[in-house]
Known about the structure:
about 40 residues, mainly alpha
Amino acid sequence: MGKEKQNFTLHAKILIRGIIFGRMAIYKYKNTPCFFEKLHPH
Length: 42
């Protein structure tokens, strides 16, 4: 049972880290006009 809990905490940490980095990346890209130009070429 202890090992399962350890595994869960590890996965939770990875998940949280992924969410934080994902949000940071989205925030950075939102403030970059060239990203939108690549996304929606006129």
